[in-house]
Amino acid sequence: MSILALDVSFSAIGWVVFAKKDLPVKCGVIRTEPPKRRMDVYVASSNIHRATQIVRELRALISEYQITGVVAEMPHGGSQSANASHKMGIAIGVVSAVVEMARLPVEYVQPVQVKLSMCGSRNASKGDVIRAAKRLFGRKIEFPAAARDMEHVADACGAYCACRDTTLVRLLLHHDHDGDLDESLATDASLCSRNMA
After folding, report:
1. How far is it, in rounded angstroms, from Cα 197 to Cα 71?
2. Cα–Cα distance between 15 and 130 in angstroms, integer?
3. Phi, psi of 20, deg, nearest 5
4. pLDDT in tens, 105-114
5. What is the pLDDT of residues 67-117, one digit of tens each?
6. How many domains is the chain partitioned into structurally?
7. Which residue segment(s) compose the domain that 140 sits in?
8. Measured between alpha carbons, how far is 53 from 188 in angstroms, rounded to an integer?
9. What's the burial of 89, exposed, middle or buried (CB within 10 Å: 0-12/13-18/19+)?
10. Which residues are registered as beta bridge partners of 31?
């Protein structure tokens, strides 16, 4: 079982795959860019092309790493322009649709939750979050060398940390060495099943 942690945006989606509790195995960034010769392409066509790229790359990650759940940092909607808000809306819709079509359980968190889980402060800077990600996971995985990529991967790590104690993450990643659920989690699962019956 593995979880895909995401930092959602239109131009750069940071991602990290966690195979076990607190064990990242791979990370990267899905980058989309508008055509270099904008005069030849309508903006709407460019956005569709970029949205399609996100769909393809997310589906490939889900398939390659046999993803069984998703945690994602979703923006709070405080974009500085109408165009930025529009593009963020596309990214949110695309990611949500891919996750739903893959029938995967998902947990969403806000940026402030990422800052609190990583740094203990809602006023933490991007640099603070990056340093926290390297401190927590830097010995377990090779992070991107480029700062512009590391920023998004760090936020994806933060999405995982913010969801670490949720039922979703606990059920998917907190297993004992024999592959069985820890006793406390098995009890949680049993109670959930009874409550849903």
Report:
1. 26
2. 14
3. -140, 175
4. 999 999 999 9
5. 999 999 987 665 567 888 888 999 999 999 999 999 999 999 999 999 999
6. 1
7. 3-162
8. 39
9. middle
10. 12
Question: In one letter, which amino acid is 26?
Answer: K
C-alpha to C-alpha distance for 186 and 164, rounded to whole angstroms: 17
- Is 193 within the bounds of a domain? no
What region, left, alpha or beta, does residue 22 occupy, with left being phi > 0 and alpha being psi -120 to 50 degrees?
left
Task: Cite the beta strand spans of 45-183 per DSSP E.
Answer: 69-73, 106-109
Asked if 142 and 153 count as a contact pair (C-beta separation under 8 A), the reply is: no
Residue 71 backbone phi and psi in degrees, to 5:
-125, 140
Distance CA 154, CA 160 (A): 10
The sign one gets for the Cα dihedral 82, 83, 86, 91 is: negative
CATH of residue 70: 3.30.420.10
Burial letters 90-118, b for 16+ CB under 10 A, else e: bbbebbbebbeebebbbbbbebebbbbbb
pTM of this prediction exceeds 0.70: yes
Task: Tokens for 18, please give them.
Answer: 């966690």
> In the numeric block, which tokens belong to residue 156?
């994806």
Task: Indicate the helix (H) or strand (E) that contains 115.
Answer: helix 111-119
